[in-house]
Amino acid sequence: MDTQKKHEANFQTFRLQAAHRIKGPLFTSKDEINIIIRRDPASGRRIVLWHDIVSVFAAARCVQSGETILPFLSSEGSSEYLEPRRIEAHPDVVLDVVL
Which pTM value belongs to this model? Predict the structure, then answer.
């Protein structure tokens, strides 16, 4: 497996939509931050924990792909979010963090 494919398989890339000062450094919409993808133990789905996102982007409100807001995952047949909160990983695209 080449380095690029290995990277895509293990990390989700995020960026801000606009410049904001977050926990000291200035991130801009051109900066991309990689966060580890985990496996959900119950479903086996590839996920990113919300806690991991807000540890970098403290004021994060939601994550979107293009014009689509990514929902927190919930258990099948329920509207209750799984805890800890998580979103499904999309390692083939850069996801936008919305403040």
Answer: 0.80
